[in-house]
Amino acid sequence: MRNQSVLISGASIAGPALAYWLNRYGFDVTVVERAPGLRPGGQAIDFKGKTHFTVLERMGILEDIKERRTGTTDTVFVDENGKHLAVMSGDFTGGDVEILRGDLAEIMYKRTAEHCEYLFGDSISALTELSDGVYVEFEHGPARTFDLVFGADGIHSRVRKLTFGPEKDFVKYLGHYYCVAGASPWSKDATGPRERVTAYGHNAPGKLAISGGSKAQQLYMFMSPELDYSRDDTATQRRIVEEVYADVNWDVPRMLSEIADFNDFYLDSISQVRMQGAYTKGRVALVGDSAYGNTLAGFGTGLAVVGAYVIAGELAVADGDYTVAFARYNEIMQGYAKIMGNSNAGRFLAPKTGYGIKMRNWFLGSRMFTLMMKYADKAANDIDLQDYPALVGPTEIN
């Protein structure tokens, strides 16, 4: 096998999934993650359809996911007095199986930690492609050279920035922000049945607040010009949410009063990654949200695990020849990633006007919404999933 030493940036979902397959095919895998350890909790993510389930079964983790699954959440939209206006089915928002991001990351990490090197608390600072590898400099650790480098580091990918160019050239802001606050009731230590539950949401023009459900204790979504804040400054992020929702009634004042007490708090833009023709450049490849992310579009996690399966399988088939494998990966995933389309969760869930809110509520009860759900089911399986050879590397993963 050629090009055996590989570096993966990111230890959330795409990174450990890719580490699993590359190790299984005989590659020497190192994963670097800027966080000091696995990120627990996080919002709930989901898988849908035969294609996703096939990959999870081949990884041997489908039953683990089912054991840690969250409950299905139906969202009831209400006016400021609590009157029910519309219902968004949890079958639409939660796929066929839903799990907290942190729980899925832990499952995948445990499948790879014994056989792959993980470098927590560090990140890539520079990449220099050589004739026979990639020279990688780290923020803290010593520089090293790898045969191949993979960016599985999310929509704000450092690998993409260093290899392809600035984020603004590849990430389109879609006009909204979202915030998840408070651990899900199905966090790691939670007990009790994982059943169907109800969350309640209230809209004001350009704003949405949701209380309860499996995603998190609170979820906010709002229209805004692009904001300038540090992604590490949660105090400023909390203040932004408090200021945006200061004039919203219903249960929002109570929700805002609890924000300061939540350790789990995350604010980010709703954006879409738009690569220009390829997810690879030289010896570097992007996988998951760094390549084809679209915030809250509903297919990101499935795309990540399928993309990891495809690029690793193509490398195995090509005996490590990245020029052949990367070309095939680009061809396959550009077709499948079209599932993301130009969807904008913010525009749908936090309409700009009162009339838009009324039309969204009408749509949720219409036959067109049922047809859209069926289309989503079909799109999730719109790939000719290859059955790559069951090669096993120097360390068998059970």
From TrEMBL:
Cross-referenced Pfam families: FAD_binding_3
Domain FAD-binding, first and last residues per copy: 5-316
InterPro entries reported for this sequence: FAD-bd, FAD/NAD-bd_sf, FAD_aromatic-hydroxylase
GO MF term set: FAD binding
Gene3D superfamilies in UniProt: D-Amino Acid Oxidase, subunit A, domain 2, FAD/NAD(P)-binding domain
PANTHER family attached to this UniProt entry: MONOOXYGENASE, OXIDOREDUCTASE-RELATED
Name listed for the protein in its UniProt record: FAD-dependent oxidoreductase
